[in-house]
Every structure is written in structure tokens, then in C-alpha cells.
Specification:
Largest sheet: 6 strands, mixed
Number of strands: 11
Main location: membrane
Protein name: NitT/TauT family transport system substrate-binding protein
Keywords: Cell inner membrane, Cell membrane, Membrane, Signal, Transport
Distance between the termini: 16 Å
Helix content: 25-40%
Strand order of the largest sheet: 2-1-3-10-4-11
Radius of gyration: 20 Å
Shape: globular
Family: Belongs to the bacterial solute-binding protein SsuA/TauA family.
Order of helices and strands: HEHHEHEHEEEHEHEHEEHHHHEHH
GO molecular function: ATPase-coupled transmembrane transporter activity
CATH architecture of the largest domain: 3-Layer(aba) Sandwich
Length: 370
């Protein structure tokens, strides 16, 4: 085991119809953009049937975001229940990635979907003890959207007020890295500099953009598409900054203790994840509907169809954890001073994934982990 690095500071933490905005804001309240409060709402799909695995219940954590649609669809369509047989599924939703890591550390969640920055931070802060990444889930779904009356080109972002969801979160690090690549100076802690970086949850971003107090935002889906529905335009898709337009947005993580004690359960969850991603690829329209239905079940509100469709088009669902891009994101954060280490040695255990891919007749993931 490597010794834990010292604390990482910052990484711990308009013209659409009125009805569209109202419904969208209601949805955002339950989509990981408000208080860091876990909920147990949601359906686990069909009841468990068959022999029980090595635990009677597996607790699965996820955010009700479209970038977590593998989990949304897996639960809504019963993929997890089928693979887990007699073991029950206990889904638990969270409003932010850091609380997923907290729950994993506290033993209140066994397996979870989360973004790269919380996974990187949780792994490094624990000296490698907190988690393992066992599968990929999603790529893409992040855009820079702007007020077209104020920003007409990438150069005009300089001097403007741009929102990201949280200091040191995945989108925050991505924007800071992109700005640095253009030669702009921004203090990563205060957000002050050649661009005024406003760290705020996405519900507030939607209101602030509509009121004119923001010029743009670097945000994930569905927030980007909600802002576009208000009159913003997409200035940059983050996918355009990555080789092959692929970069990790969501991975599947597990507690190492749970992985060691219950490999059969981890294998079953990963098989269900692979099956859900295959179904999403084969039936994209039905999958989008299923994801929307699960979000409505969680929030009590349906995401407007136009927003759902636009947001869905920007996301690619993949079993590949895209290890090189996770390593690159850690390096970016370290260069910005948000991490003291970018050594992710040991963060992956792709055994469950490759066993699942082999059984499904799919190509194995052979890329080396960072």
C-alpha cells in the first residue's frame, strides 16, 4: 500500500417557454446539483428471483444524471435484478460525487457510479484503500454553452463570467486546463483571473444564466441542454478536446473490501452493467425513454422531451473505463495545483469487467491502467 498523500484541499469539494424552465429546474433539484443529501428513492426493477449470491442485499449508489444512464436503465429495465438472482438490489441516489465516496468509505454503499474527479480524489486521499474502478459507463456529455449576444468566439470567453458545478470537480478541472492551454491565468482556488470562474450548483447556474449574471457555463448534461433551451448556444463540446472524442465521464467503483469478500456479487453487477450498455446501444430510443422514466420516478417530474433528446445525443455509453483519459485528468489537476499526486497505480481491477465481456462474447479491455 502506498502512503496517503497530504490532504488535497480544493478537490474535496434566455427565451424558452416558462413551463420548460419550471420542469427543468424541478428535475435539477434531484439530479446531483443541490444539497449533498442521499436518497433511497427509485425502483430496483423486477423482484429478485433465484438462488441468493453471497449477500442478501447489494447497495448500489448513483446520481440521477443522464451521464449515469447505465444505472438508470439497468434499474428501470431489471438488468441488475436478473443478474443478481436472489440477492436484492437496494438503490441509493446521491446529489454529488463526493457523497458517493463518503458513503463507500462508511460502508453504506457497496458499488456505485461516479465521475472521475471524486474517484481520483477518494483513491488518492485514502492512499489507494478506498475504491477500485471495475468498469466504464459513460463518455462525453459535457459542453461549454454561452450567451450568444456576449460571446461569439472562443477568444471572447476571456474576461467573462463562466460557471462550473463545483470547485475542483471534473468540469471545473477541465475548464481550468482548457483556459491554461490558451495562455489565460486563473487562480484555481479563487477562480479569479483572465476569466471569472463561478463555482455554483447547476440549479443556481440555470437561474443565474437566465437573469444575465453569467455569460456561460462548462456543464454536464442535462444542464447544458436546459441552458440551450433558454437561448444559449454550444460554443465547445469537451469531446472535441480528446483523441477520438472519447473521455471518461462516469465509471463503476467498488469498495475493495466488498470486492474481496463478494466477487460473485461484483461480477453480477458488472454483467448487468454490460448488458444495460448493450441494450442502450441496440435500442437507443427505448433506452432514452427508460432513463427518462427512471428520472421521473426519482424526481416526480419529466425532463422535457426536447431537452432529453438533445442531452442524450451528447453521451456515449461504454464498458471501457478509458483509463488513459482518467490518468490525463489526474495530471491536469496536479498541474493546476489541485492535487499533490497524480499516481493512480492500482486504481483499476478490470477482472470483473473482462469476465463479463468474455461471457457476452465482447472484446476484452486490454489497455494498461495508469
Amino acid at each position: 500500500m502506498r502512503s496517503a498523500p497530504s490532504p488535497l484541499g480544493p478537490l474535496t469539494r434566455l427565451a424558452a417557454a416558462a413551463v420548460v424552465l419550471t420542469v427543468a429546474l424541478s428535475l435539477l433539484a434531484g439530479c446531483g446539483y443541490g444539497k449533498n443529501r442521499p436518497t433511497t428513492a427509485g425502483a430496483a426493477g423486477p423482484p429478485a428471483r433465484g438462488p441468493q449470491l453471497s449477500v442478501d442485499t447489494v447497495r448500489i449508489g448513483y446520481l440521477p444524471n443522464l451521464t449515469h444512464a447505465t444505472a438508470l436503465v439497468g434499474l428501470e429495465r431489471g438488468f441488475f435484478a436478473r443478474e443478481l438472482k436472489g440477492t436484492k438490489v437496494a438503490p441509493r441516489t446521491f446529489n454529488a460525487g463526493p457523497t458517493v465516496i463518503e458513503a463507500l468509505n462508511a460502508g453504506s454503499v457497496d458499488i456505485a457510479w461516479t465521475g472521475p474527479s471524486p474517484a481520483i480524489n477518494g483513491y488518492l486521499r485514502s492512499g489507494g484503500d478506498a475504491l477500485r474502478i471495475v468498469a466504464g459507463s459513460a463518455s462525453g456529455g459535457v459542453r461549454l454553452v454561452v450567451n450568444p449576444d456576449r460571446i461569439r468566439s472562443l477568444n471572447e470567453v476571456k474576461g467573462k463570467r463562466i460557471a462550473t458545478p463545483q470547485l475542483g470537480n471534473t468540469q471545473d478541472v477541465a475548464f481550468l486546463h482548457w483556459a491554461a492551454s490558451r495562455g489565460w491565468k486563473i487562480d484555481p482556488t479563487t477562480g479569479r483571473g483572465d476569466v471569472s470562474l463561478v463555482r455554483t450548483d447547476n440549479r443556481v447556474t440555470v437561474d443565474a444564466f437566465r437573469s444575465g449574471s453569467l455569460d456561460g457555463a462548462w456543464v454536464p448534461e442535462p444542464t447544458a441542454s436546459i441552458l440551450v433551451a433558454q437561448g444559449a448556444r454550444v460554443l465547445l463540446d469537451e469531446a472535441d478536446l480528446w483523441p477520438g472524442r472519447r473521455f471518461v465521464t462516469t465509471n463503476v467503483i467498488v469498495s475493495p473490501a466488498f470486492l474481496a469478500k463478494h466477487p460473485d456479487v461484483v461480477d453480477a453487477v458488472v454483467r448487468a452493467s454490460v448488458a444495460a450498455n448493450t441494450w442502450i446501444a441496440d435500442r437507443p430510443r427505448e433506452a432514452r425513454t427508460a432513463a427518462g422514466a427512471h428520472l421521473k420516478r426519482l424526481t416526480g417530474q419529466a425532463l422535457p422531451a426536447g431537452v432529453l433528446d438533445a442531452a442524450w445525443r451528447g453521451i456515449t455509453f461504454t464498458n471501457d473505463p478509458l483509463a488513459p483519459t482518467l490518468r490525463a485528468q489526474a495530471r491536469h489537476a496536479a498541474r493546476l495545483g489541485l492535487l499533490e499526486s497524480a499516481d493512480l497505480t492500482g486504481i483499476y481491477d478490470l477482472g470483473p469487467l473482462n469476465r463479463s465481456l468474455r461471457s457476452a462474447g465482447l472484446p476484452l479491455i486490454t489497455q494498461s491502467a495508469p
